[in-house]
């Protein structure tokens, strides 16, 4: 199948020089084997080379080199192996240093003395067990988190989704109290997701109302806490607990937006159930990643030319909340060249992921088809 796909690409691109064809074949086969064939949403019988041939064919002959050069030089693809390494580093590189500093402060020693102090090590273990890890989507991959920290984190302090019912809250709290005593509560809650480009999905204000995943979790905890009080039972999470917002991958833009909105929420959101908030990420993407007119004018011109406004109509509610009038640059106009192995963010340029019928513009054929929960 790869041979047929390569032949198709050669014809589409007009590689009449055997040396050019051989060089490009070698690059395509290498990248397909090492990375791109691992994308989870290629259709049956099709992988990267075949998808690339179909994708390139949608462009006019004079535009195909621009599209191909974009894939070769600007596309950023985070593979399954790379994402696994990011997740495996989460506890040792993000969670542990913070809890070690807190443990050191509790016993009055320097952070670098915690492991050499019985009291410090005990305080750290206590804090770690009082930390709850909540996955917010399939992409949070808590299965990898569990395996990477077997023996360090209990199964009863990791939950795969935030829709936790009353029975599960009871189980989480009981397990913790059985180990650390009747007054034990979760003091730290890590809300984990795979990726953020704008920070909008996690926390935003629309017409004065707070929305997003943090709002949903806050309401979930507040409701469960009220129900526990009404029944006379203790609740698993402490009052004024600390929320740690963690994304495996984040843009610089999203990190800045999250920090800004969190500070705003601290001042303007009296109904919040939590206290302190921290923001962290496993991989922080540079601000230079997004496509810009000064460096990527030719590819941005293709985003304009091969665009179907049907895409905006499909996602209108979410686009309007983000203050945009089209989807030429992706959600929140992020204009990213990014693909994650399990899905393509809608913040990436739609030419990478959109599939439309051409009702209000040019029909769009995806290179990495996206599973879109918004329609």
Topology (elements, then pairings):
Layout: H1 2-13, H2 18-34, H3 48-57, H4 64-73, E1 76-78, H5 80-88, H6 90-107, H7 118-129, E2 131-135, H8 142-148, E3 158-159, H9 166-180, E4 186-196, E5 204-206, E6 209-211, H10 213-231, E7 237-251, H11 252-268, E8 277-285, H12 293-305, H13 310-314, H14 316-321, E9 338-340, H15 350-353
Parallel strand pairs: 1-9, 2-3, 2-4, 4-7, 7-8
Antiparallel strand pairs: 5-6
Key terms:
alpha/beta; 5-stranded parallel beta sheet; 375 residues
What do these coordinates show?
46% of the residues lie in helices and 14% in strands. It is of the alpha/beta class and 375 residues long. It has 3 domains: 1-57, no CATH class; 58-74 and 291-375, no CATH class; 81-287, no CATH class. It has a 5-stranded parallel β-sheet, sandwiched between helices. A two-stranded parallel ribbon has the order 1-9. Helix 1 (2-13) runs parallel beside helix 3 (48-57) and helix 6 (90-107) crosses helix 7 (118-129). The longest helix has 19 residues, at 213-231.
The succession of helices and strands, N to C, reads: HHHHEHHHEHEHEEEHEHEHHHEH
Quick one: how many beta strands? 9
Oligomer: single chain
Q: Number of helix segments?
A: 15
User: Low-confidence segments, ≥5 residues, pLDDT <50?
Assistant: none
Structural class estimated from helices and strands: alpha/beta
Radius of gyration: 24 Å
Would you summarize the structure shown here?
With 375 residues, the chain is an alpha/beta fold.
